[in-house]
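Supplementary Text 2. Reproducibility record for the structural model of the 53-residue chain.

All settings were left at their defaults, and a single model was retained for analysis rather than an ensemble. We include the record here because the model underlies the residue-level annotations in Supplementary Table 4.
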Amino acid sequence: MDEGLKTTYSVKTKAGKQYNCYVMGTIGITGKNVSDAMCNEKGKPAVNPLTGK
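Retained model, structure tokens:
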């Protein structure tokens, strides 16, 4: 689903795990930029990848 500058999508791995993911985008003087994908396993709380909490 495209929400303007945020696009969300679902991923299913070959092992059967399912994730909700999103990428953010910006448009500026230097052009278009897209963030790395941020994903959380479905049914589990969001976790900060830097702290693990």
